Amino acid sequence: MQTNKDNPEQFTRLWTEAQPILAGYLCAVVPDFQEAEDLLQDVAVVLLRKFPEYKPEQPFVGWAIGVAKREVLMSRRRHARSRIFYQADLMERLAEVCEELTPELEERSRALRECVRTVPGRAAELLRLRYEECLKFDLIAARVGMAAVAVRVMLSRTRATLRECIERKLKFQNSRS
Amino acid sequence: MNDPQELIDSYLDGELTTEQEKRLADWLTADREHMRRFVREAHLQRQLRDILLAQSFQVKTRPLVAKLEPPAALSLITAAVLAFRRVWLPFAVCLVLAITGFGIWYFNPTVGQPALTEIQGSGLILERAGHRLRATVGIHLEPGDLLRTPGNVTAVIGYAPEQTRITLLPGTEFKLTTLSRGKLFDLGMGKLEASVARQSPFHPMILSTPQSKARVVGTKFTLTVTTNATRLDVTEGKVRFTRLSDEQFVLVTAGHYAVAASDYELAALPATGKILREWWTMSGSFDSHSFIGLMSNPKFPDHPDGWDYLVHFETPRNWGTNYGASVCGYLLPPTTGDYTFWIAAGHYGELFLSPDDTPQNRRWIAHAYNALPHDWDESRNQQSASITLQAGRKYYIEARQMQGTDEDDYLAVAWQGPGRQREVIPGEFLAPLQPPKER
Question: Hey, CA dihedral for B432, B357, A104, A23, is it positive or negative?
Fold first, then answer.
């Protein structure tokens, strides 16, 4: 009988599907991209190690978020932090909501990919500096010659425009289907 | 800073003070919808990073990819092939079209004249040029003739020597519009069943109703007209079905139906009334409380040991031992709204639903261990979350069951939705997948 341990393709397939949702969850509880990415890698390693224990009858995303949650708590202990978002009950509820929203978040990702292409020049550059290069507002401001407050406002507006674009696309898809 | 969006943005930008973070945590715990909004925003920002990184990667690797492209000599060959295709392909297509056109003209199908060939019951009305005629078997029909079948009358129109046959069922109003440009009819009300021999593509049969137009070149189908809707059910071949209000059309193929009505999506949907069950016999020792054994069965999923149809989403009880089964097909909700599903199964069952009609997108929504028939609430896991479904769409649904050596086997799926109490899903909202031999 083939077990999970003997089935790395199965793990790769499930991980590829679940990875964006896990990344979103970690971004929610650890609002620092690079720290969240380190954690995501740790979670992937733990999931692979524990994969023989995974029961195929349960949703992989839910199981993976459970593991991620434990990793975040471990990380809190390691770094001796006391962020309010590391409260166990709040993390638990966030995990539930992430799992519940999985199909919707996948649709939103698809819509976002199209919406990002419509962002014009300077706003696109600010997005790139903030999300690709992970720069803080003051460094972005220095790079593009704007005030930090103006950078914050422009990024905030751009994200609002993206949210509206996503909602429009989802509404349009729902009306067609 | 009191606006929740500002708090979320600042949190995700790593700029919240402890006091603001506490305020955000309070806002989140106050309402689950707040939590959803927060998760959507976190996911958006995370996805923004992934998308922008991917774009940057593409830009950076483009020169490398260009270097790996085939050498110029190969490109010249490719260009020559393309040029050849540009000239010769249209020529070849024209030649094939010309030969096909000649064939259609030369082998034009036989065209017969319409006549009443069968009448069951009494009181059939035949009106010609405003006069009522005596409708008898054998009478030839002419353009403009109007036929009305009262409540107990069925009439059959034949086109000998052609095999076309139209059966007018009780309560139908039917008019022959013209015969010279193909068979053009109006179905004002009621229901007809038609078996149509091959027609000339230039002179197809066209059936008009107040809501629709069906274009037929050879098929078997049923057309039903009510005061505000027309339904087409196709048994063989295909029919082009046009909704008159907006000229939108859909091709309806065998085993499918479509409805033309103002508040209904025009789509070809699989005919309802049953759902497919397949089973695989298990040998040796296996765990009947998981699907690992079934997954390891080399015949799974494409070569079941048997299959049949269920008329609702429930299998017979005590049917067999040592097998794995799958009941799969399409769910066609009658009303848009929120639905909840339950599964009851022994020994073990799982329920999957797809957000669309593709099996690959199915998601686990509930499972059951040793649940007795119709005992939906033995475990919380037997119930799905509330799921929004839309009328006029089809959703792939699948329930799997594992059964060991005991005889107490069983599988059923229930739902509850807008205006419907909890019930085993009736066959009228289910359509089967094609059986394995036809896939």
Answer: positive
Chain B residues within 8 A of A103 when measuring between CB atoms: 355, 363
Most confidently predicted of B193-197, B220-224, B325-329:
B325-329
* Strand segments (E) across A61-101: none
Give the global pTM: 0.43
- Residues B292, B294, B299, B303, Cα dihedral to 10°: -130
Cβ–Cβ of B356/A177 closer than 8 Å? yes
Give me B167's structure tokens.
């059966």
For residue A93, which residues of chain B lie inside 8 Å, CB to CB?
28-29, 32, 35
CATH number for the domain running over B115-270:
2.60.120.1440
List the 272-331 stretch of B: residues with Cβ below 8 A of A: 286, 290-293, 295-296
Contact partners, residue A118, CB within 8 Å, separation at least 6: A165
Give the integer Cα–Cα distance in Å for B59 and B62: 5
Q: Note the pLDDT of residue A82.
A: 45
Q: Decide if pLDDT at A55 tops 50.
A: yes
ipTM over 0.90: no
CATH number for the region A104-176 comes to 1.10.10.10
Give the pairing of strands B125-128 and B146-149. Answer: antiparallel
Q: Which among A93, A131, A137 is the nearest to B48, CB-wise? A: A131
H/E element, B223: strand B219-225
- Dihedral sign, CA of B307, B312, B313, B318? negative
- Listed by start position, the domains of chain A span 4-100, 104-176
Per-residue pLDDT of B390-419, as tens digits, reads 988 889 999 999 888 876 789 999 999 999
Residues linked to residue B327 through DSSP beta bridges, in sequence order: B277, B399
Q: Suggest the residue from B17, B39, B332, B357 to mutate for an interface test with chain A (most A CBs closer than 10 A).
A: B39
Written as six digits, the tokens of B81 are 């092939």
| Record: contact A177-B36, CB cut-off 8 A | no
- State yes or no: pLDDT of B351 exceeds 70: yes
Class of domain B275-438 (CATH, top level):
mainly beta
Which position has the higher pLDDT, B193 or B106? B193
CB B383 within 8 Å of CB B341: yes
Contact B25 A55 (CB under 8 A): no
User: What separation in angstroms does the CA of A26 have from each of A62, A94, A106, B15?
Assistant: 14, 10, 16, 17
Put simply, whether B30 touches A (Cβ < 8 Å) is: no
Q: Cα distance from B59 to chain A (closest Cα, Å)?
A: 13
Q: Quick one: pLDDT at residue B330?
A: 93
What Å distances lie between residue B324 and A3, B328, B382, B407, CA to CA? 18, 13, 19, 13
Q: How far is CA B130 from CA B126, B173, B185, in A?
A: 10, 15, 18
